[in-house]
Specification:
The complex is a heterotrimer of chains A (187), B (445) and C (534). By secondary structure, chain A is of the alpha+beta class. Chain A has 1 helix and 11 strands. Chain A folds into 2 domains: 43 residues; 109 residues, Ctag/Cox11 (Pfam 04442). In chain A, the strands form 3 sheets. Chain A has a 5-stranded mixed sheet with strand order 3-1-11-6-8, with no helix packed on it. In chain A, strands 2-5-9 form a 3-stranded antiparallel sheet, with no helix packed on it. A 3-stranded antiparallel sheet of chain A has the order 4-10-7, with no helix packed on it. Chain A starts with 6 loop residues before the first helix and ends in a 12-residue tail after the last strand. Chain B folds into 3 domains: 59 residues; 157 residues, Cupredoxins -  blue copper proteins (Immunoglobulin-like, Sandwich), CATH 2.60.40; 101 residues, Cytochrome Bc1 Complex, Chain D, domain 2 (Orthogonal Bundle), CATH 1.10.760. Classes of the chains: A alpha+beta (187), B alpha+beta (445), C mainly alpha (534). Chains B and C meet through helix 1, helix 2, helix 3, strand 7 and strand 9 of B and helix 4, helix 11, helix 12, helix 13 and helix 14 of C.
C-alpha cells in the first residue's frame, strides 16, 4: 500500500514543484508593478506619476484654515521647451475649487508630443490633491514655436492632515518619443 | 622570547597597523562631521551612541574569543569540555540584543521623525539634478541658475591634464555658482532630477536626498553658522558623477537679503554672494515670465479665475492677500459645463482642433493611424463608418492602448471630435453629436 | 583502496580529456569545475578591483576615462557576486552535500551539468560587453534605471548574461534541494544533517525564490528600452524607484545567499578544531531560518534616501535591526563552541576565527547603517563599501577559503602545505584590514562611492587602501600555489584528515572515490550530535 515512489519520480516531482515556484516568482516580479502602484495610490508613496482620471468635485469647504500650495515645473528633457506655473503659490481653503494655470512654450522647430507627470511633496498630501481638470491627464501636442496655456483645476481634500502645512504640486513635462528615455549625453 | 614566533610578530603587526589607522583617523579628523544644522548634531550624537554601543559589544565578544584562544588551546594541554547547549544562556543572549536594539531604535526613531518634519518652512528652494550639474530654483523669488564644477577643477580633472590637483583650491569641491541660503531659517528643499537619478549630499548638513526624475522629494535644513559647505552627488549618474559638487554658502539673513535683491536686479546674471559683484554667467538664467509672450486661449473656466469664494469664511481677508490676481478660486457655477449645442460647422472646426491636440499623436493628423504602433486608421475605419453608439462608447471608455477620454475631455469637445471623425477623412458615418448625447451615453453606463 | 584502484576507477567507462569535463554528470567533477571557474572569476574581478585602486591612488584622472572606471566598478561587482562567490558555494555544495548526506550523487546529474556549463557562456557574454561599441554598462552592479537604460548595445547582452546566471542558479538550487530532501541516507533525519547542509537547504530555497525576481526586473528594463513599455520610465507613468524596490527584493535575500552557506562552513570548521560539538545546534538551524525569512522584509533599507514615507522608513529600520538578533545568536554560539574546547589553529580554523571577528565588525556597521538618520550620512559613501566588503570578503570569501583548506585533503588525498597556507592567511588578514578598515573613515568624512576621482583631503587614506588592495590581491597568488601544490602531491591525507572532524564525508577514504555511497552508509556511521544522542 505505502510503497515509496521510485527516486527518479520523486526527484522529478520535487523539481517540477520547485520550477513552478521559480516561474511563480518570475511572475511575482512583474506583479510587483501593480502592487506598488496600488500601494502608491493608497499611501501617496512617491507621488502618483501619470494621472488620467479626473476627480469629481465634492463641494465641502473647510474655512477654518488655509494651506499654501506651491507650484513647480520641470522640463524633463533639454529641448528648448519652456514650462512654468503662472503663479508660484496659492493660499487655499481645503475643499474650495481653484484654478492654477501653467504655460508652456515649445521653442524648437519640430512637432512634439509631451506628457506631464505630477508629483507631490509631501507624499502624504498626494491623495488629498484632487484635480477636476488637468493638462496632465493626456498627452499634448506642440507645434513648432507653439505657446500653450495649460489649465489645472484642483481642490485640496478637507481631510488633508493638519500637520501638512505646505503642499507642493510639481509637474515634469516629458517629450514622448518611442520609449521616452533621455538620450545619451556626452560630457 | 615574545617575538620568536612569526605568528606573534604578525599579530603585533596587525594590531599596530589597526592602531595606527585609528590614530591617523582621529588625527585627520575623519570621523563624521558634527555639522552645522540641528539635524546634523542629532545624527552625530546618534552615530557616536551606536558606535560606542558596538564597541562595547565588540569588547565583550572579542575578549571571550581571545581568552579561549589563549587558555583553551590544545597545545597548552587544554582538554575539551563536551557541553553543547544551555537553554538559559541561549535565551539570555537572544533577549539582551533585543534590549540593546530597542535602546538604539528609540533615539533613531525620534531623530527620524524630526528629520521628516518639513512644516513651517521660511523658504523653499527646488534643486534639480542634471548630468552633470545642479540647478537651484528659488521658487518664491522667481529666479534659478545652474551650478557646475569650477573651471580650474574641471581643467585639472581631465585625463592626463598635467595639472596637479593639489595646486587647485578646493579641487572637485568648488562650483561656479553656489547655492545661497540664510542662516537660522528653516529651508525646505524640493529635490528632483532631469535625466537620471542623482543624490544631493552635504555632510555638514547631514542631509542626503535622492533626486528622481519625474518625482519630487522634500527635506529641510537649517544652517546655524555662516560659511561655505561642500558636498556632492552620491548616486551614480554616469561619466561625470564625481564632477558635480554641491556648494552651499550660508549668509546672515541681512546679507542674504542683499544677495536676493542683487539677484533680482541682475537680470539673469549670477551674483557671487562673497563679492556681490556681477560675473558673466553665459547661459540665460532669467525666470521672468515677461520674456514669454503667452497667448491665453479663450477658456470658459479661466475667465472665471480671480473670483473670491462666493461664501467667504473666516480668514478670507487674509487668504487672497497671498493670492496673485491671476488665479484664485473658481466659482462653483463655472465648473458645471454650460449647455452648448453644436452646429455642424462649429462642431467640425472645434472637432478638428480637439483631434489634432489629442488624437493625431497616435491616429496621425491624416487619420491614417500607425500600423507599427498598432493604432488603427480613422480614415475608412469600421467605427467612424458604423453605428454611433459604439463609436461614442469606445471614445469614452477606451480599449487596449486607446485611452478612455470620458473624463479627460469635456462633453462638448467629445461631441465635436466624434462628429469630426465621422465626417472627415472620407468617412461617411455621418451625424452631428451634441454634448447632451455624450452626457446621456455617460449616464447609460 | 589504493591509488591505482582509484585511478583505474576514474577512467572506467568515462570519456577522458576535455570531453570528460564537458559531459560529466559526476557531482565531484562538477564541483571541481565550479570551484575552478569561481577561482578564475575571483582573479578577473580582482583585476578590475586592482584597476580601480590604481586609478584611486591619487587625485586626478591618470589611467582611464571616468566611464571606463564606472564599467570597472559595475563589472567588479557582478563578476565577484555572480562569478566568484556564488559559484564557489555551489561548487562546495556539489562536492560535499552528497558525501555529507550519504548520497551517491546529486539527484539530477544531467541538470547539474547544464547548471554549470551555462555559466561560462554567461560570463563570456558579460565580459564581451567590454569590447562592444560604447563599452560595457557603467551603471553599477545594481543597474538602476534610467542610467542603465542610457548604456548602448551592451545593455541587452548584460541582461541576457544575467538571465543565464539566474537560470543556472535556479537549476543548481533545485538540484540541491532534491538531493537533500530525497537522497539522505536512511537514518539521517533533517535534524541530524550537518550545519553546512542545513544552510544550503535554506539558501537553495532563497535562490529559487529571488533569482527569478531579478530576471523579471531586468526583463522589464529590456522591455522599457526596446518595446516601449514604461515600467520604470516616469514619462510614461512608471517609476524608477520601483526598479529599486524590485531589485532589492531580490538583492537582500541575495546577500544572505552569499552568507548563509558561509555560516554553514564556519559551523563545520569551528567544532572540528575546537574538538567539541557545535553549541546550540537547534538554535543555529532556527537562526538561519529566521534570517532567511527576515531577508524578505528588509529590502528597502538599501534605499532610505529615495524619499519613502515615515512609516516605511520606520518599518524597514526595525525589521533590519531585528536581523541582528539571530545573527548575534550565531556568533555567540560559535564563541560558546570554542569556549573550553581544545583549540588548534590550522589554516581552516584561522580563517574561521578571522571570519567571526571580521564578520562581526561588518555586522556592527550593518546595525549602524540600519539607523535611518545616520544612514543619511553613511548611504552611498565608502562607509557602505567598507561594510559590505567586511561581510562579503572577510565573511563569504574567507569562509570559502577556509572551506577549501578544510576539505582539500578529502578532495586530493594530500595535505596542503601548512606553512604556505599560513602565509596566505596572515598576509590576507592583515592586508584585507588595511584595505577595508580605512574605508570606514573615508565614508564618514563624506567620500562617495563609485567615484573615479576625489578631493585631495582623501588622498592619504586612499593610498593606504590601495596598498592594502594590492597586497591582498597579490596574496591570493599564494592561495593558487597552495591548491596546485596540494593537487600535485604532499603528505598523504588520512580518511579523517582532522582528528576532531565528524560527518559522513570523513568516513570515506581520501581522496574520495569517484563514486561514493553507491550503497547507503550503515546507519551507525552517521554521526549524531550529542543534543539528540542520549
Amino acid at each position: 500500500m505505502n510503497t515509496p515512489l521510485p527516486p527518479r519520480v520523486r526527484h522529478h516531482k520535487l523539481a517540477a514543484g520547485l520550477l513552478l515556484l521559480s516561474v511563480f516568482m518570475f511572475g511575482f516580479g512583474f506583479a510587483m508593478v501593480p502592487l506598488y502602484n496600488a500601494l502608491c495610490r493608497l499611501t501617496g508613496l512617491n507621488g502618483c506619476g501619470v494621472e488620467s482620471v479626473a476627480a469629481a468635485y465634492a463641494g465641502e469647504v473647510d474655512y477654518t484654515r488655509t494651506v499654501p500650495v506651491q507650484f513647480a515645473a520641470t522640463t524633463g528633457s533639454r529641448r528648448p521647451f519652456e514650462f512654468r506655473p503662472e503663479v508660484g503659490s496659492l493660499r487655499v481653503y481645503p475643499g474650495e475649487l481653484y484654478a492654477a494655470n501653467y504655460n508652456a512654450a515649445d521653442r524648437s522647430s519640430t512637432r512634439i508630443r509631451a506628457q506631464a507627470v505630477v508629483s507631490y511633496a509631501p507624499a502624504s498630501a498626494a491623495h488629498c490633491v484632487h484635480k477636476t481638470e488637468c493638462f496632465c491627464f493626456m498627452q499634448e501636442n506642440f507645434a513648432p514655436g507653439e505657446v500653450r496655456h495649460l489649465p489645472v483645476k484642483f481642490y485640496l481634500d478637507p481631510s488633508l492632515p493638519r500637520d501638512v502645512q505646505v503642499v507642493t504640486v510639481a509637474y515634469t513635462y516629458y517629450k514622448v518619443s518611442g520609449n521616452g528615455i533621455p538620450a545619451e549625453r556626452s560630457d | 622570547m615574545l617575538l620568536k614566533n612569526p605568528k606573534q610578530i604578525l599579530c603585533i603587526a596587525l594590531a599596530v597597523t589597526l592602531a595606527a589607522l585609528s590614530g591617523s583617523a582621529l588625527a585627520m579628523d575623519l570621523n563624521m562631521p558634527v555639522g552645522v544644522t540641528p539635524m546634523s548634531h542629532d545624527v552625530y550624537d546618534l552615530h557616536m551612541y551606536a558606535f560606542w554601543m558596538c564597541v562595547g559589544i565588540g569588547v565583550v565578544v572579542f575578549s571571550l574569543i581571545i581568552i579561549s584562544m589563549i587558555w583553551h588551546r590544545k597545545a597548552a594541554g587544554h582538554k575539551a569540555a563536551q557541553f553543547h547547549e544551555n537553554t538559559l544562556l541561549e535565551v539570555i543572549w537572544t533577549i539582551i540584543p533585543f534590549i540593546i536594539l530597542i535602546a538604539l531604535a528609540i533615539p533613531a526613531a525620534r531623530v527620524l521623525v524630526k528629520m521628516t518634519n518639513t512644516s513651517d518652512p521660511d523658504l523653499t528652494i527646488k534643486i534639480e539634478g542634471y548630468q552633470w550639474k545642479w540647478q537651484y530654483d528659488y521658487l518664491q523669488q522667481g529666479f534659478s541658475y545652474f551650478s557646475m564644477l569650477a573651471a580650474d577643477s574641471n581643467a585639472a580633472r581631465q585625463l592626463d591634464s598635467k595639472i596637479n590637483p593639489f595646486s587647485v583650491p578646493h579641487y572637485l569641491r568648488d562650483v561656479d555658482h553656489p547655492m545661497v541660503v540664510p542662516t537660522g531659517k528653516k529651508i525646505r528643499l524640493l529635490i528632483t532630477a532631469n535625466d537620471v537619478i542623482h543624490s544631493w549630499y552635504v555632510p555638514d548638513f547631514a542631509f542626503k536626498m535622492d533626486a528622481i526624475p519625474g518625482f519630487v522629494n522634500q527635506g529641510w535644513i537649517e544652517v546655524d553658522q555662516p560659511g561655505t559647505y561642500r558636498g556632492g552627488c552620491t548616486e551614480l549618474c554616469g561619466r561625470g558623477h564625481a564632477f558635480m559638487p554641491v556648494v552651499v554658502v550660508a549668509e546672515s539673513p541681512a546679507d542674504y537679503q542683499k544677495w536676493l535683491a542683487a539677484m533680482r536686479a541682475s537680470n539673469g546674471v549670477y551674483i557671487n554672494p562673497h563679492t556681490l559683484q556681477a560675473e558673466n554667467y553665459g547661459s540665460p538664467v532669467a525666470y521672468a515670465p515677461p520674456q514669454l509672450n503667452f497667448v491665453t486661449p479663450s477658456m470658459p473656466a479661466a475667465a472665471a479665475t480671480g473670483a473670491v469664494p462666493s461664501t467667504p469664511g473666516p480668514g478670507a481677508a487674509a487668504a487672497p492677500a497671498f493670492t496673485p490676481a491671476a488665479a484664485g478660486p473658481v466659482t462653483k457655477a463655472a465648473t458645471a459645463a454650460p449647455e452648448k449645442t453644436w452646429t455642424m460647422a462649429s462642431a467640425m472646426a472645434r472637432g478638428k482642433k480637439v483631434f489634432d491636440d489629442n488624437c493625431a499623436a497616435c491616429h496621425m493628423s491624416d487619420g491614417k493611424g500607425n500600423a507599427a504602433m498598432g493604432v488603427p486608421a480613422i480614415a475608412g475605419g469600421p467605427l467612424p463608418n458604423g453605428p454611433l453608439a459604439a463609436h461614442i462608447s469606445l471614445v469614452l471608455h477606451g480599449k487596449g492602448i486607446m485611452p478612455a477620454w470620458g473624463n479627460a475631455l469635456s462633453d462638448a469637445d467629445l461631441a465635436a471630435v466624434i462628429t469630426f471623425e465621422r465626417n472627415s477623412f472620407g468617412n461617411h458615418g455621418g451625424g452631428l453629436v451634441q454634448p447632451a448625447d455624450i452626457a446621456r451615453a455617460k449616464t447609460a453606463h | 583502496m589504493n591509488t591505482v584502484a582509484v585511478v583505474h576507477e576514474y577512467h572506467a567507462g568515462h570519456p577522458s580529456g576535455l570531453w570528460r569535463w564537458i559531459t560529466t554528470t559526476n557531482h565531484k567533477d562538477i564541483g571541481t569545475l565550479y570551484l575552478c571557474f569561481s577561482l578564475l572569476m575571483f582573479f578577473v574581478g580582482g583585476a578590475f578591483a586592482m584597476l580601480i585602486r590604481a586609478e584611486l591612488w591619487t587625485p586626478g584622472m591618470q589611467l582611464m576615462d571616468p566611464e571606463f572606471f564606472n564599467e570597472m566598478t559595475a563589472l567588479h561587482g557582478l563578476v565577484m557576486i555572480f562569478g566568484a562567490i556564488m559559484p564557489a558555494f555551489v561548487g562546495l555544495a556539489n562536492w560535499m552535500i552528497p558525501m555529507m548526506v550519504g548520497a551517491p550523487d546529486m539527484a539530477l546529474p544531467r541538470m547539474n551539468n547544464w547548471s554549470f556549463w551555462i555559466l561560462p557562456f554567461a560570463f563570456i557574454l558579460l565580459l564581451s560587453t567590454l569590447f562592444m561599441p560604447g563599452g560595457a554598462a557603467g551603471a553599477g552592479w545594481t543597474m538602476y534605471p534610467p542610467l542603465f537604460l542610457q548604456s548602448g548595445v551592451a545593455m541587452p547582452f548584460q541582461v541576457f548574461a544575467i538571465h543565464l546566471m539566474g537560470i543556472s542558479s535556479v537549476m543548481g538550487g533545485i538540484n540541491i534541494i532534491a538531493t537533500i530532501l530525497n537522497l539522505r541516507a536512511p537514518g539521517m533525519s533533517l535534524m541530524k544533517m550537518p550545519m553546512f547542509v542545513w544552510s544550503w537547504l535554506i539558501t537553495a530555497y532563497l535562490l529559487i525564490a529571488v533569482m527569478p525576481v531579478l530576471a523579471g526586473a531586468v526583463t522589464m528594463m529590456l522591455m522599457d528600452k526596446y518595446f516601449g513599455t514604461s515600467f520604470f520610465n516616469a514619462a510614461g507613468g512608471g517609476d524608477p524607484v520601483l526598479y529599486q524596490h524590485v531589485f532589492w527584493f531580490f538583492g537582500h535575500p541575495e546577500v544572505y545567499i552569499m552568507i548563509l552557506p558561509a555560516f554553514g562552513i564556519i559551523s563545520e570548521i569551528i567544532p572540528t578544531f575546537s574538538r567539541k560539538p557545535l553549541f546550540g545546534y537547534t538554535s543555529m538551524v532556527f537562526a538561519i531560518a529566521s534570517i532567511a525569512f527576515l531577508s524578505f522584509i528588509v529590502w528597502a533599507h538599501h534605499m532610505f534616501t529615495v524619499g519613502m514615507p515615515l512609516a516605511a522608513d520606520l518599518f524597514f529600520m526595525f525589521t533590519t535591526m531585528l536581523i541582528a538578533v539571530p545573527t548575534g545568536v550565531k556568533v555567540f554560539n560559535w564563541v560558546a563552541t570554542m569556549w573550553r574546547g581544545a583549540l588548534s589553529f590550522e589554516t581552516p580554523m584561522l580563517f574561521a576565527v578571522a571570519f567571526v571577528f571580521l564578520f562581526t565588525i561588518g555586522g556592527f556597521s550593518g546595525v549602524m547603517l540600519a539607523l535611518v538618520p545616520a544612514d543619511w550620512q553613511y548611504h552611498q559613501t565608502y562607509f557602505v563599501v567598507a561594510h559590505f566588503h567586511y561581510v562579503l570578503v572577510t565573511g563569504s570569501a574567507f569562509a570559502i577559503m577556509g572551506a577549501v583548506y578544510y576539505w582539500l585533503p578529502k578532495w586530493t588525498g594530500h595535505m596542503y602545505n601548512e606553512t604556505l597556507a599560513k602565509w596566505h592567511f596572515w598576509l590576507s588578514v592583515i592586508s584585507v584590514n588595511v584595505l577595508y578598515f580605512p574605508m570606514h573613515f573615508l565614508g564618514l568624512a563624506g567620500m562617495p562611492r563609485r567615484i573615479p576621482d576625489y578631493p585631495v583631503q582623501f588622498t592619504d587614506l586612499n593610498q593606504i587602501v590601495s596598498v592594502g588592495g594590492f597586497v591582498f590581491g597579490a596574496s591570493q597568488l599564494l592561495f593558487v600555489a597552495c591548491i596546485i601544490l596540494c593537487v600535485r602531491g604532499g603528505k598523504k591525507a588520512e580518511a579523517r584528515a582532522w582528528d576532531g572532524a565528524h560527518g559522513l564525508e570523513w568516513t570515506l577514504p581520501s581522496p574520495a572515490p569517484y563514486h561514493s555511497f553507491a550503497e547507503p552508509p550503515a546507519p551507525n556511521l552517521i554521526w549524531t550530535h550529542p543534543y539528540q544522542g542520549s
